[in-house]
Design a protein that fits this description.
A four-stranded mixed β-sheet has the order 1-4-3-2, sandwiched between helices. By secondary structure, the chain is an alpha+beta fold. The longest helix has 20 residues. It has eight helices and four strands, in the order ααααβαβαααββ. The termini are far apart.
Length: about 240
């Protein structure tokens, strides 16, 4: 949380912009859930004899006025609040990484080809921007520009660091996290990277276009960041 404040100050991300981004994340997640967008990528879980457990992170009651009432959560007089920070969440995700030939043998009809991945480090006090450093290196090495990306998923630990990273990369925040992100859906530690890839595949399948590029990014505690460049491909 303190590092998120450091990022907000260092990169000039004001409170209002953080709150607006958080609200958009919640509303996008609610719209996506209502449209059944998550149905094909989630597995129902229920305790013995009980009802199925459902996500309760996205908040229908969240408004700009309510967000404005949240006090600073980590630094007195700061801009990072519980309202523009990620929701605590339990969760798990799984992906299969294999060769194209094996994927076809398994009957996969489509998937995401891994074109490259990079990991980079930044000062620990600014750990939230590690993903931007990794993505810059990745895009430079692959000759891909921000405008070439069809889909972008970034783990929203805090609105301040998400916006700072997207700004550094020249990616319009409107283009990222089309169905909301961790600010609404939660940041399940250890699973969030796989969640990003799952989200990208699900989004690519809505409008399947071979060769569509997708970028997954996550910043990591301690000052690290990882980014992966993916390409949607049908195997038929």
């Amino acid at each position: 949380g303190v590092a998120a404040e450091n990022v907000a100050v260092r990169y000039g991300i004001p409170r209002q912009r953080q709150d607006d981004f958080s609200l958009r994340s919640h509303r996008r997640a609610l719209d996506a859930a209502g449209a059944g967008a998550f149905a094909g990528e989630t597995v129902s879980m229920a305790p013995d004899g009980g009802e199925a457990v459902s996500d309760d992170g996205p908040r229908p009651s969240l408004t700009p006025a309510l967000l404005a009432r949240f006090p600073a959560a980590f630094v007195p007089g700061g801009t990072v609040t519980a309202g523009n920070s990620c929701v605590d969440a339990d969760g798990a995700a799984a992906v299969v990484i294999t060769s194209l030939a094996r994927a076809r043998e398994l009957g996969a009809r489509d998937g995401l080809l891994v074109l490259g991945a990079e990991t980079a480090g930044v000062p620990p006090a600014l750990l939230g921007v590690g993903a931007a450093a990794a993505a810059k290196r990745l895009l430079a090495n692959t000759g891909v520009g921000p405008g070439d990306l069809g889909l972008v998923e970034f783990n929203e630990a805090f609105a301040s660091q998400t916006l700072a990273c997207l700004d550094q990369l020249g990616i319009d925040p409107q283009r990222a996290n089309l169905d909301g992100g961790a600010l609404a859906l939660g940041h399940a530690y250890g699973a969030s990277g796989a969640v990003l890839v799952t989200r990208l595949l699900a989004q690519a399948r809505r409008e399947p276009v071979d060769g569509r590029l997708a970028l997954a990014m996550i910043s990591i505690a301690g000052g690290m960041g990882t980014a992966a460049l993916l390409e949607y491909r049908s195997f038929g």
